[in-house]
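Narrative of activities, Objective 1.

The group set out to show that a structural description can be obtained from nothing but a protein's sequence at a throughput compatible with the screening campaign. Below is one input-output pair from the validation batch, recorded exactly as produced.
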Amino acid sequence: MTTNVAQVSNATYQDVSRANQVYGEVFRYTFEYVYGSHIPGAVAEFGCYEGFSALMLADLITEFNAQDDFYTKIFPRHLYVYDSFSGFPKSVNPVDSISYEVADSGYWRENEDASPPGTEDMLRQEFTRRFGETGWSVVPGMFEESLVKQPVKHEVAIANLDCDLYSSSVEVLDHLLGNKLMPDGAVLLLDDYNCNRANPRFGMRRAMRECFARTDGFYEYSEFLRYGWHGRAFFVHRTGDSINPDA
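Output recorded for this entry:
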């Protein structure tokens, strides 16, 4: 049986039609921008739960790659999916341990939102069906280990971060930005930007601020889109290399 987005649950919305509306719109806008602007690089997702957004991203890669009569320059789009498949790690980071989603609601407690058994195998089967044996990677494990053992090896044009915790977001952002993996104009999709009551001391808001500051001005960011009650998309700007006339 073929697995599609409509058959897979989304952690943010119980109503699948609403999830399709929210993510379908922001992902499509992002692909239209990236393909229309001829931005090279892979598509990478960090945190996939049951695979809802991963399958949607895979389908969009297939759809947009087929439009070579419209987009005059199409770059190879390797698809990366990183996930522990066992839910959240224990929140030992002092920022996370006092955050609303950990200390108050308890929703981001250890092992919460673990992927159903068989999710990793399902994604491998579905990606093989869409792309063949190459052009994609499913990397299991906690980010602090998986990004070391199997790091991202391509530039990344679109990065979808659904890793919730501050500590996990820092691990991903430091990997992408510290290794200069995002080309000028790339897009960061932050699924949990407004979690923790949108308080800038916690979660992705704090991670973005601190991780970009660590690039010493090589990278900056500006807002692109807002989606649902929770998400925010940003353009990534490389200001520290020769492509910028003011660098």
